[in-house]
Amino acid sequence: MTAPARPCDPQAHLIPFKHGLPNLTASLRRQRRTRVIAIGSSSTAGADGILPFPCRLEMLLRQRWYGRMIDVINRGAGGQEAPEELSRFECDVIGEAPALVIWQVGTNAVFHDKVYSPDAVEAAIAAGLDWLAPLPIDVILMDLQYTAALVTEPAKLSRSRDIQKRILRVAKSAGVNVFRRFALMKGWCDDGIPLAEMDDGGEDKLHTSEWATACVTRALDAAIASRTDR
């Protein structure tokens, strides 16, 4: 007999957004097509047969604002980090004229720690936010996931915490929201959900499981809704 699926309690109230989403709100109020761009690495693109968060979020947003034309466009590219993602901004982000950009960063700065300098990653994030600042676009930074590949080795955990702090620092300076995926997933583990259930069982133990991906997306949807006037 198949075990019942673990219920999801997103607990998005534990990681609230600090800023409103006025451009997304205005787009939804006009009831015309609303475009959201999700840019990032494999957490965004999808990996190991797990449906990634952008298409899940699109479904949830369409359910929440029924009748609106809402598209969440997936601009993820596996293995990339903020410097490479920044090089795609003109075409993949700005050229699409979205109301909201969700920029997932930080994972490969830890997982490929010999490739990426934390200072370079932080500088690339800051540059990207500077480019977006004068445009009518809301921004959410999504930080790294809490999976074994990023937290079980002391050096990786230390690096993960450092990257977290850098993302928060840049976001604070730019006045944009951070979806604190790392803290959210860590909270689930602290509440008794095994770390082994956070990843998808792949060899690297890096990518989030079906359950974790679904619950993370629900938390993101709730966080967006909390800052978007109906």
Written account of the structure:
By secondary structure, this protein is an alpha/beta fold. It has a single domain (12-226), classed as Rossmann fold (3-Layer(aba) Sandwich). Helix content is 47%, strand content 13%. It contains 11 helices and 5 strands. The protein has a 5-stranded parallel β-sheet, with helices on both faces. α3 packs across α11 and α7 packs parallel to α9 (154-174). The protein starts with 21 loop residues before the first helix and ends with a helix. The relative contact order is 0.20. The mean pLDDT is 93.
Layout of SSEs?
Blueprint: H1 22-30, E1 33-40, H2 42-45, H3 53-64, E2 69-76, H4 82-87, H5 89-93, E3 100-104, H6 107-111, H7 118-132, E4 138-142, H8 148-151, H9 154-174, E5 177-179, H10 181-190, H11 210-226
Parallel strand pairs: 1-2, 1-3, 3-4, 4-5
Helix pairs in contact: 3-11, 7-9
Search tags:
single chain, 230 residues, alpha/beta, 11 helices, 5 strands
Summarize the entry for a quick read:
The chain is an alpha/beta fold. The chain has helices at 22-30, 42-45, 53-64, 82-87, 89-93, 107-111, 118-132, 148-151, 154-174, 181-190, 210-226, and strands at 33-40, 69-76, 100-104, 138-142, 177-179.
- Percent helix: 40-55%
| Assigned CATH architecture | 3-Layer(aba) Sandwich
Q: Roughly how many Å is the radius of gyration?
A: 17 Å
Give the neighbour order of strands across the main sheet.
2-1-3-4-5
Strand content: 5-15%
